[in-house]
Design brief:
Length: 729
């Protein structure tokens, strides 16, 4: 609505028109509405009615006419009343028998318990329990079932049987709880199993443990110690240690490319290396060439910049100035702020060019990068070694840095230190302290917490101030998102609506960040609904296994991701009963053909072909909902457009599917992984920078933001200039 600037009509006017004049809504529907709830800010009108079909059907029209989103709910207050409290607290769960069932070489723990937990007492359970009763299905003894299930049944694949880690059963309730790493086919064949054995199967997860990629990474020995830089000097012996030059040079300033060179005395550190799209060999050569060009011309660039700054002619160069200029400049380190493609895409190429360069990054960034970029996942069977040479070399060269870690140089008053940047797991900001000068590179950041990841807000206290030069992510700096939890709440309302009417929703989000947030939220929310008696149409939530792998890495590494996610992973890594993890194999997406799906997969920057295939399978019904978050790169984005003419796209060609959500269905929802204007303001308040420069966004879009930042009291705001050296001190 905001994109198309639909004015928001006064609520009274809306209701008058809706009830008295609107012909597309039947009288029956109008009369059936028992209650209306609205939220002015979110532009949502919730109508409580049992006959809301024509509201759904004419929703687009309603949005266009009134500037409000119409949400239909069948039920209201009686849900709250239905909470009979059980007073049987003495009826605690108890184990009666503990034994082991021998399958292959793995003994599976088998427990008989009594007093089943409420958790397993789902609507689905009641449905099947009724079925068992009404059809008089005999309850097969547990041992007989296990023998048949593990050794005879062929519709459950061997792989899945081997992934079962624990079995608990409740004789009286006729429930078998299967704790397994994968459980797709058991779930798919639930009805068959129930009818065959006279038991209900509740499939749930197990703790995930150490991730395979982490184990594989640990097998490779590191080349550099963590104190490698402490013996390295930033200047020549004859230079003045109190006067170390700091300069910055943007290598690329185009969408989804992030690479700067930070000059610290005679050292050159790459700030990220989002250099080029994959499969565009010419571009790769081009971008790396700019780095080479920089290194060759650096003395010249510095001289020119010095002259400009001091307004003196080039001929008047003093001895002292020349001493400060590096003789044979090279790349001395690469700092990777996080593992998103637009910051890391050039790494493989760079390591070929500079095989000995140390790489500073967080452990989780390395793990996630390896998981997604290397062929590790494609090595189907043997998941224990990283095979490709470049990736082995990258691992060898890494020096791990984490929140609060300091990397010292030989000059003790100079160091680098690192702080959580929010944005995604493992994302770090880098503070450079050169004597009394402080330079901060934020990488991509979020100030607020985006469930379940902590934003910078929690860590800014640790950074000493004032910042002399702040190089900050400007991606969404000119936007205003509003409250993030409201945004998530709106999305939930919206998806619940979709689920009630059997529509499909596709969410393509970065597997390691947004997708996890979404998954977690859906899981909690729909799980709650599922446990309620009157919730009929629980959606099938399918999550690409890639997302699960990422969760495993994140959980394995990161204690700072607070609360819910770690509990989810620890207790219910695989809550199949509401969320099903599947490998999204392009050639076999038939499981998505049913209705009422919420599908969480990758954004197109990782596998745009997959997203397109999913769209083809779930159909291009306008009621299907597609939301792609995360960076969408030019080429894949374009491919999607060409391959999908029937889908309505926005004017912003770069984000065709997000537009489907924002413009058409729910324009009030803005969930993004970059900070908006308000969060930028909070950063400026906390860091008190003297000078601010942006990256990650074109200068053109930032002129207003620059004015805004100046008004906050910042002395100088500069917009990025491509391949122009700036001396900061
Ligand atoms: Zn990012
Ligand atoms: Zn980025």
């Amino acid at each position: 609505m905001e994109e198309k600037k639909i004015p928001q009509m006064e609520i009274i006017e809306v209701l008058n028109h809706f009830f008295l004049k609107n012909k597309s809504i039947s009288e029956k529907t109008k009369k059936s509405i028992s209650k209306i709830i609205y939220c002015l800010k979110d532009r949502i009108i919730i109508t409580i009615t049992k006959h809301g079909r024509d509201i759904i059907v004419s929703r687009d029209k309603l949005i266009r006419n009134y500037g409000w989103f119409f949400f239909v709910s069948e039920t209201d207050t009686h849900r709250k009343k239905k909470k009979p409290k059980k007073k049987n607290e003495s009826k605690q769960e108890k184990t009666l028998i503990y034994e082991e069932f021998q399958f292959e070489n793995f003994p599976i723990p088998l427990k008989q318990k009594v007093n089943m937990r409420a958790l397993y007492h789902t609507k689905e359970y009641r449905h099947y329990f009724k079925l068992i009763k009404s059809k008089n299905i005999t309850q097969t003894p547990i041992k007989e079932i296990l023998n048949d299930f593990f050794f005879n049944i062929e519709f459950i694949p061997m792989e899945e049987k081997k992934a079962i880690r624990k079995i608990i059963y409740y004789q009286e309730e006729k429930v078998i709880v299967v704790k397994a790493l994968i459980g797709d086919q058991i779930y798919e064949n639930l009805e068959t199993l129930v009818k065959k054995y006279g038991w209900y199967f509740y499939i749930t997860g197990v703790p995930v443990g150490k991730s395979q990629i982490s184990i594989a990474i640990d097998k490779i020995e590191k080349r550099f110690n963590s104190d490698y830089f402490s013996s390295i000097s930033l200047i020549d012996e004859t230079s003045n240690p109190n006067n170390i030059r700091i300069n910055i040079y943007p290598i690329v300033l185009k969408p989804n490319h992030n690479c700067h060179i930070l000059g610290l005395g005679k050292l050159n550190i790459l700030l990220d290396c989002g250099l080029s799209e994959k499969n565009e060999e010419k571009e790769i050569e081009g971008d790396v060439r700019h780095i080479e060009e920089y290194l060759q011309n650096l003395p010249q660039y510095i001289l020119e910049e010095e002259k400009n700054r001091r307004k003196i002619p080039i001929e008047d160069t003093t001895e002292l100035e020349l001493k400060n200029i590096p003789k044979n400049p090279k790349i001395d380190a690469i700092f990777l702020s996080h593992s998103h493609y637009d910051h890391i895409s050039g790494l493989k190429e760079l390591i070929r060019l500079y095989p000995d360069v140390p790489i500073l990054c967080s452990r989780i960034s390395l793990d996630l990068y390896m998981l997604r970029d290397s062929n590790f996942l494609k090595q189907q069977e043997s998941h224990d070694e990283i095979e490709e040479e470049e990736y082995q070399n990258i691992i060898r060269n890494v020096i791990y840095v984490e929140n609060g870690v300091k990397i010292e140089f030989k000059e003790k008053s100079c160091f680098l230190s690192f702080f959580h940047a929010g944005h995604m797991p493992g994302a770090l900001m880098m503070l450079v302290k050169m004597n009394n000068f402080r330079f901060l590179y934020t990488g991509d950041y979020t100030f607020y917490d985006i469930t379940p990841f902590a934003g910078t807000r929690r860590f800014l206290e640790q950074i000493s101030r004032p910042i002399d030069y702040l190089l900050i992510d400007g991606t969404s700096a000119q936007e205003e998102f509003g409250n993030i939890s409201d945004q998530f709440h709106s999305l939930i309302l919206f998806l619940e609506q979709k689920a009630e009417y059997g529509d499909n929703s596709l969410i393509g989000a970065d597997p390691s960040s947004l997708a996890i947030s979404f998954m977690l939220i859906f899981w909690r929310y729909f799980r709650k609904l599922q446990l309620r008696r009157d919730y009929k149409n629980r959606p099938n939530i399918y999550v690409d296994m890639m997302v699960r792998r990422n969760i495993q890495v994140i959980n394995h590494r990161y204690e700072y991701i607070y609360g819910p996610i770690s509990r989810l992973i620890r207790d219910k890594a695989n809550p199949f009963n509401s969320i099903k993890f599947r490998w999204f194999d392009q050639t076999n997406l038939n499981f998505l053909r049913k209705k009422n799906n919420i599908i969480i997969s990758h954004p197109p920057d990782l596998s745009y072909g997959l997203i397109r295939n999913i769209i083809n399978v779930i159909g291009r019904n306008p009621h299907n909902f597609v939301f792609l978050a995360g960076s969408i790169h030019e080429q894949p984005g374009l491919d999607l457009v060409e391959g999908a003419e029937e889908i309505e796209f926005s004017e912003t060609w770069k984000m065709p599917f997000r537009a489907l959500l924002l413009n058409k269905f729910a324009p009030h929802i803005k969930i993004k992984l970059h900070s908006d204007k308000q969060q930028l303001q909070e950063m400026i308040k906390a860091l008190e920078p003297k000078e601010v420069c942006f990256f990650h966004q074109s200068a053109k879009r930032l002129t207003e933001v620059a004015e805004f930042v100046k008004k906050l009291g910042v002395e100088k705001v500069s917009l990025p200039r491509k391949r122009k050296l700036i001396i900061l001190n």
